[in-house]
Design a protein that fits this description.
The chain has helices at 18-25, 28-34, 42-53, 105-120, 135-143, 173-178, and strands at residues 3-4, 8-11, 58-63, 69-77, 89-96, 125-131, 147-157, 162-172. It has 179 residues and is α+β, with helices and mostly antiparallel strands. The longest helix is centred in the middle third of the chain and has 16 residues, at 105-120.
Length: 179
């Protein structure tokens, strides 16, 4: 499955993306706010592609006309999500490399993933999370119509070996249709 926007192509990850993934995912400013440690090597990035990014619904974010992965966006449904949601709901997660911050690319990718989720997958609700202090993610979710649903108190996250407060946002299909 390949999705397109005005400036982006969202496509499945390939093992040949490992070098570009490592280029952006080794930066602490990318991984820690998203809940994972910086990648330590191209081999680590290749393993993440193989074990995490190869699942259905996870897309490499590339600039249209280029085939270099600059970020990631995923729409994971039901029990495969990190949230306790039903099979007709999905969780969106995302990140983009630092050189592409502030260009509106992730909100653009999210709008297409939202459209895909509601129109093509017939989902009823979409969910997103961000950790306390991750203002970029909070603003992105708000721009795309998500509203705060609840806050999970401080809990332990083994990937980063720390405790964090997690904010959960939701967008219903009815809310999306009104925009």
């Amino acid at each position: 499955m390949i999705l397109e926007t005005e400036r982006l192509t969202l496509r499945p990850w390939k093992t040949s993306d490992a070098e570009s993934l490592y280029r952006y995912a080794r930066d602490e400013r990318v991984g820690f706010p998203a809940g994972w440690p910086p990648h330590g090597s191209v081999a680590d990035s290749k393993e993440i592609i193989r074990t995490v990014f190869s699942q259905d619904g996870v897309f490499a974010v590339t600039l249209k006309g280029q085939d270099t992965a600059i970020g990631c966006i995923g729409l994971i449904r039901g029990a495969a999500s990190n949230l306790p949601i039903s099979d007709n709901e999905g969780e969106i997660s995302y990140w983009i490399g630092v050189p592409f911050w502030g260009l509106g690319l992730i909100p653009e990718a999210m709008r297409e993933i939202i459209r895909y989720g509601f129109e093509e997958l017939a989902l009823t609700n979409l969910w997103c999370c961000y950790f306390d202090g991750n203002e970029k993610s909070r603003r992105t979710q708000k721009k795309c119509g998500f509203r705060h649903h609840h806050t999970n108190p401080e809990q332990y996250f083994p990937l980063t070996d720390d405790r964090r407060v997690e904010h959960v946002s939701r967008l219903t299909k009815d809310e999306w249709l009104k925009v």
